[in-house]
């Protein structure tokens, strides 16, 4: 068999089913009893949040294609209707497995350790009386019962909002039962704490409201009440016509998103068919889009349990990140970068040096300009604060804020306005492309003239996710990279042809071509009988051109090892296609997020870090950057981290030719090896070594009487 003779389904894996397989791997972590209990609960909440986003983005896209009668096949040869059917079946099985784990194992295990989520009916009378008083004093005034009839249509429910659907008996003289809704207020805590001598106990807010529903409909016979939730298409459709600014267009579309098509309706499994049918008709969804859930809706609520104070024995040990940027007693980041480049591997290495670079740049009177991209920043970001402070101090601050970072649009609009008010020059994205590159440039006056300092990363400028996502960052004062960074920003902020870069590689102009050349070069070496190897780490691999290039390289004899956390459309280990390709996925304590690309290059190893995955959108539709790792010590660190992914026999899963993932376990003569633990230990070792070297000073002894 060859690429030419294999069918699409034999050569490629469907993107949507591959994503569901990733979420199933996350669910495996929630089910893994060797993982601390609250960490398992965290993974279950992540599963639920992931599935919400999947429906709002990927399922919505399939439904859109079907509405437009688009029957084009995907890489694996499936049409949108075929994909949607397969996705719904597999998602249904996943939901049942998730709830079985939560209801039958995780919640009982939490209860045994002193964290209980109780049903209102199981409480003693005194507790129920206290909760009734709480309801009337703190909940009832916030609630709004919404009757649904001819004069009062079904309300425009926000995507993912939690609501109680109420079925009431028919009014006198009418034949049909009536429908009403009560939204569970998002501004109130959903887990209501109650006194408990055994630990921490909670009841769900919706259960309190449900118990006292008669007070919202006095005199009206209530037949049943059931929680419901819907998910809407989250895609933005930006229309450049009308003369509005890009910011105004995004603002408008974010508001319009609230009216987008419903792609999923969740209802408690206890709801009657009559109530489910009424709801389905009102929100206008296909019966196949209805998910009857055997437990509390929206399991993201479990996140609050993982954040309870105490219970440290139920968590992973706290991470103590190493500080590789500053030696003891040397806190000026510019002095450090004048002497050496700094490679950071988060979260094992502290994110502080990145925040410090911006903070010191804002306060240093010799800093003249700061230029930066922002894709996703955290609430309360010190980086945003530093940029605002720098602008207020009349430094030239230019920030490219990507307004269309999905689900962060509103926050990014707020950042953009705040930075503009402080006096920064804010670019609201680049027309036609999403800016996903991670780069910061600081221009500073020194006794030797102007000097530029650059930070490049694989992850966002987000201090919160830097503690839980694995990413690499490079801090440098290299003149060549600084010149490239300047050219990059000039191209994005002004009118320019694609810049000619010496070290950096930019998408959508050059990155695809560079990857193809690097892959083809390894293929030619293999055909010439030379050793050839490609090792890469990424979040997703779905670009057809690159996959076919990897297939050609494999059949030429190139050893290809891929660490793909999430979606992978490539089929490894297929005879005549991908015999020499191995694909490993690791789901562990930290979200694997870094992108690393290694090419043996005849023994002159080339290593690159990038903001881009091997996805068509990253290579053709986004502004991305790739940068080389050239210092021998830094190159060794990155290669060591990359190869550790393939040594993991605790949290690694191997992709099989049929699309299944099989967990790798230690052989009888093999020690357990967990890559993330190894990398944490390595970061501490490097930091200790640097501190030791910094503490060594050579002092020559003078000869007696020598005063020189």
What is the compact description of this entry?
The chain has 708 residues and is an alpha/beta fold.
Q: What does this molecule look like?
A:
The strands form 4 sheets. Strands 14, 18, 19, 20, 21, 23, 24, 25, 26 and 27 form a 10-stranded mixed sheet that branches. Strands 10, 11, 12, 13, 15, 16, 17 and 22 form an 8-stranded mixed sheet that branches. Strands 2-4-3-7-8-9 form a 6-stranded mixed sheet, sandwiched between helices. The chain has 19 helices and 27 strands. Helix content is 37%, strand content 21%. The protein starts with 7 loop residues before the first helix and ends in a 14-residue tail after the last helix. The protein is globular. It has 708 residues and is of the alpha/beta class. It has 3 domains: 280 residues, 2-Layer Sandwich (polyphosphate kinase like); 171 residues, Endonuclease Chain A (Endonuclease, Chain A); 188 residues, 2-Layer Sandwich (Endonuclease, Chain A), CATH 3.30.870.10. The C terminus is likely disordered.
């Amino acid at each position: 068999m060859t690429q030419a003779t294999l069918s699409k389904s034999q050569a490629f894996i469907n993107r949507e089913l591959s994503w569901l397989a990733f979420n199933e791997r996350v669910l495996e972590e929630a089910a893994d009893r060797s993982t601390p209990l609250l960490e398992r609960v965290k993974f279950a909440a992540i599963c639920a949040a992931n599935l919400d986003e999947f429906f709002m983005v990927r399922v919505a896209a399939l439904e859109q294609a079907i509405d437009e009668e688009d029957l084009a096949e995907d890489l694996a040869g499936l049409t949108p209707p075929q994909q949607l059917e397969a996705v719904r079946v597999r998602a249904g099985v996943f939901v049942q497995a998730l709830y079985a784990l939560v209801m039958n194992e995780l919640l009982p295990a939490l209860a045994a350790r002193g964290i209980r989520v109780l049903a209102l009916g199981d409480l003693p009378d005194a507790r129920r009386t206290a909760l009734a008083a709480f309801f009337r004093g703190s909940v009832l005034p916030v609630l709004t019962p919404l009757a649904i009839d001819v004069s009062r249509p079904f309300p425009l429910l926000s995507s993912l909002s939690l609501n109680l659907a109420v079925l009431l008996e028919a009014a006198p003289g009418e034949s049909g039962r009536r429908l009403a809704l009560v939204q569970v207020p998002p501004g109130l805590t959903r887990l209501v704490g109650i006194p408990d001598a055994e630990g921490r106990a909670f009841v769900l807010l919706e259960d309190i409201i449900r118990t006292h529903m008669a007070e919202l409909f006095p005199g009206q016979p209530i037949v049943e009440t059931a929680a419901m939730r819907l998910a809407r298409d989250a895609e933005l459709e930006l229309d450049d016509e009308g003369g509005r600014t890009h910011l105004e267009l995004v603002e408008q579309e974010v508001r319009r998103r609230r009216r987008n098509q419903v792609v999923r309706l969740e209802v408690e499994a206890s709801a009657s068919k009559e109530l489910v049918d009424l709801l389905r008709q009102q929100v206008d969804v296909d019966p196949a889009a209805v998910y009857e859930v055997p437990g509390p809706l929206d399991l993201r609520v479990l996140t609050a349990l993982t954040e309870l104070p105490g219970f440290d024995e139920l968590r992973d040990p706290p991470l103590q990140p190493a500080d590789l940027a500053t030696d003891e007693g040397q806190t000026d980041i510019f002095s450090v970068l004048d002497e050496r480049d700094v490679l950071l591997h988060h979260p094992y290495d502290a994110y502080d040096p990145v925040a410090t670079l911006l903070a010191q740049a804002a306060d240093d009177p010799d800093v003249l300009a700061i230029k930066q991209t922002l894709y996703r920043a955290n609430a309360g970001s010190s980086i945003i604060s530093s940029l605002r402070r720098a602008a207020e101090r009349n430094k030239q601050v230019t920030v490219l804020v990507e307004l269309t970072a999905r689900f962060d649009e509103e926050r990014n609009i707020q950042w953009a306005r705040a930075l503009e008010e402080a006096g920064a020059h804010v670019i609201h994205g680049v027309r036609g492309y999403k800016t996903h590159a991670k780069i910061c440039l600081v221009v500073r006056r020194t006794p030797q003239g102007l000097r530029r300092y650059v930070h490049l990363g694989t992850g966002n400028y987000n201090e919160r996710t830097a503690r839980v996502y694995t990413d690499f960052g490079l801090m440098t004062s290299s003149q060549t990279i600084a010149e490239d960074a300047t050219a990059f920003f000039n191209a994005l902020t002004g009118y320019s042809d694609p810049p000619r870069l010496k070290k950096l590689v930019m998408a959508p102009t050059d990155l695809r071509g560079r990857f193809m050349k690097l892959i083809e070069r390894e293929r030619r070496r293999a055909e010439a009988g030379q050793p050839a190897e490609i090792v890469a780490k990424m979040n997703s691999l779905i670009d057809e051109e690159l996959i076919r290039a990897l297939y050609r390289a494999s059949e030429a004899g190139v050893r290809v090892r891929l660490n793909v956390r999430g979606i992978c459309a490539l089929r490894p280990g297929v005879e005549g296609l991908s015999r020499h390709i191995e694909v490993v996925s690791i789901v562990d304590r930290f979200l694997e997020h870094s992108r690393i690309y290694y090419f043996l290059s005849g023994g002159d190893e080339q290593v690159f870090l990038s903001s881009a995955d091997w996805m068509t959108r990253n290579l053709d539709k986004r502004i991305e950057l790739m940068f080389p790792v050239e210092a021998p010590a830094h190159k060794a660190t990155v290669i060591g981290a990359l190869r550790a992914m393939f040594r993991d026999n605790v949290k690694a899963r191997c992709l099989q030719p049929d699309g299944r993932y099989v967990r790798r376990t230690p052989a009888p003569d093999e020690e357990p090896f967990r890559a993330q633990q190894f990398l944490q230990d390595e970061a501490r070792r490097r930091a200790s070594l640097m501190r030791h070297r910094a503490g060594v000073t050579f002092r020559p002894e003078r000869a007696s009487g020598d005063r020189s």
